[in-house]
Amino acid sequence: MKKEKILELENVTKYYSSELVFEKINLQVVEGEVICLMGKSGSGKSTLLRCLDRLELIDNGIIKFRGVDISNIPLVELRKKIGIVFQDYNLFEHLTVMENLTIGLIKIKKYTKKESQKQALEILQKIDLVDKKDKYPDELSGGQKQRVAIARTLLMNPDILLLDEPTSALDKEMKESVLNLVKKLVQEKRTLIIVSHEEEFLRKISKKIYKLHNHHLISVM
Length: 221
Ligand SMILES: Nc1ncnc2c1ncn2[C@@H]1O[C@H](COP(=O)(O)OP(=O)(O)OP(=O)(O)O)[C@@H](O)[C@H]1O
Ligand SMILES: [Mg+2]
Fold this sequence. Notes:
Mean pLDDT: 95
Strand content: 25-35%
Shape: globular
Bound molecules: adenosine-5'-triphosphate, magnesium ion
């Protein structure tokens, strides 16, 4: 069975004012595929992910989601389909772990509180944090926060998940817990784009490793 193309980038170019970030990026992401993205600090990795969710506008080229130009997809729809976990967690500090997990389900997916909590509990089991459900983000370690942030995006059931340096701020032990979660997602055949410097880990989970270098996307074998 032919797998569907989830994302297609054709000659995508991005500037910040007159500053070129990247140009003529071409990339295809097929269902169930894991794409890894590396590159020096400032090379444009986060910007590229942000362009996929229209958090940044591109200057040239086209980005298609399931064959449709993303600029023709309503933002709310697009962001349900393309889930992004940012480099710095972005948990709501004034909400508990449970509330962080259910808020999107209640407000965006219009699930009942009861159904949302049921789903949140299931995912908390998977990330091994049931005992932290009533804690606030500042009571969690970095690795725990990052797992909650990933879980929160997963609960929205996106077609593709974008992870921006999920382990960059973590020490070795905490890294491990997040990478284990990523490994689970790969085993579940989720479609992922992961930005990371953990080359050894990336090589274990995917053959599609790219680098942003001198404004271009190059394949790293
Ligand atoms: N909102 C913005 N306005 C103007 N310039 C920006 C903006 N965001 C990023 N830049 C610049 O664009 C370039 C790419 O930034 P980006 O954050 O995408 O890099 P990165 O590869 O994710 O880096 P890092 O590894 O440090 O996270 C950098 O030179 C940065 O200074
Ligand atoms: Mg970045």
